[in-house]
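Data availability (excerpt). The following record was deposited with the supplementary files.
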Amino acid sequence: MKLFSAAMIAAALLAAAIPFVPAKAASVEEPPGFRLSDYRAPTPAGLSGAVTLDTGGVRALLERGGTVPIYVQKLDRSTLPGAPWLLSKPFRQIPGSVWLPNVGLGAPDPATLSWFEQHLARLTGGDRAHGLLFYCLSDCWLSWNAAKRAVLAGYTRVHWYPTGVDGWMEAGLPTEEAQPLPGPPAP
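Predicted structure:
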C-alpha cells in the first residue's frame, strides 16, 4: 500500500511539473466572400487590404486622430412606420464611435448598403484615404464583413479590431453608451 501511495504522489508531482499548454484554436481561413450566417464564431487572423489591430494598436490609432471608429453591432427594426431600431438593452461602444447597425451582415438589403456608403462618404468627407476602424464584439464576423465592404469600396486606410468592444472593456478602457444612427428607409 505504501508503494502504491508513493507512486501516486510521484505521478501527481510529475503532472504538476509539466506545464499545461492549452489546445490552440483551429485557424480560420479568410473566405473569398462575406460571412453570411453564424456571425458569432471565430474569425480569421486578418483581412486582406485592412490592418488588423489589437487593443493597444486601436488605442494608439485613436489617440493619433484621423480615424473614425465604427461600431457595427446588429439590431432588429420595428414594424412601426419609419422602422426605428429596437434597443432591448443598453449597448457600450468605444468613445467617439459611430454606430451603423447591420452594415456587417453578409447580404444586407440595397437600402442598407446605400445607407452604409452614404455614411462612409459623410464620415470621411469623401476622402477614401481617411482612416476607418471597424469593430463589434469578440468572435464577430459583422465587423470583418463591414471592413471588407469598405476595402472593396476603395477605402485605403481600413482597420479591423477583432476583439471589439469586449477586448476594449476587458482592458479596462472607458466606454460610452452607444446610440445607433437612424436607419435607412424601411424596405
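Summary of structural features: The beta strands are 51-52, 67-71, 76-77, 85-86, 92-93, 98-99, 131-135, 158-161, 176-177.
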